[in-house]
Amino acid sequence: MAVIFLLTSCLSGDRRSIPVTGGEDASAPALVELARENVLEYVISSRLPTAPPSADWQLDNGEQLAGEYRFRSGDWLMIISPAERHEGNQRVVIINNVENISWCGYVELDGHVVDTAYIR
Asked: Residue 56 has what pLDDT?
């Protein structure tokens, strides 16, 4: 139940689901990759020490929402999506249902990571 609330509050907005195409060569844009690395560095050092390192995460080419990038590593899921505001911040949610852990926050344009929710 907490994960549903977390996802609703962190990823709200009217978006339509579209499949990502392009085969295995598909990759995330540089700003998304940078956000992923910054978030992982932050959460591993302060919130989620059991999260896998950056190199262990793979882009999930399955069905996803427009403008959203999903990365997986074992039982972990990370969702990165651009904020709907004009600041250019990228919203990030990290979930591990096996360990009942979730983190939500955003990455500012300068790379600064901001917590908005942490459930353990």
From this structure: 96
Q: Is 58 helix (H, G, I), strand (E, B) or coil?
A: strand
Helix (H) or strand (E) holding 4: helix 2-10
DSSP H or E segment with residue 8: helix 2-10
- Cα–Cα distance, 43 to 90 (Å, whole number): 15
Beta pairing, strands 76-82 & 69-73: antiparallel
- By the 10 Å C-beta count (0-12 exposed, 13-18 middle, 19+ buried), 83 is classed as middle
Amino acid identity of residue 109, one-letter, is: L
Q: Is the pTM of this model over 0.90?
A: no
The H-or-E segment that residue 17 falls in is strand 17-19
Instruction: Examine the pLDDT at 67 and tell me if it is beyond 70.
Output: yes
Integer-rounded Cα Rg, in Å, for the chain is: 13
Report d(CA 32, CA 82) in Å as an integer: 9
Structure tokens at 90: 């990228």
For residue 110, count other CB atoms closer than 10 A to its CB.
6
List alpha helices for 11-107, DSSP H.
30-46
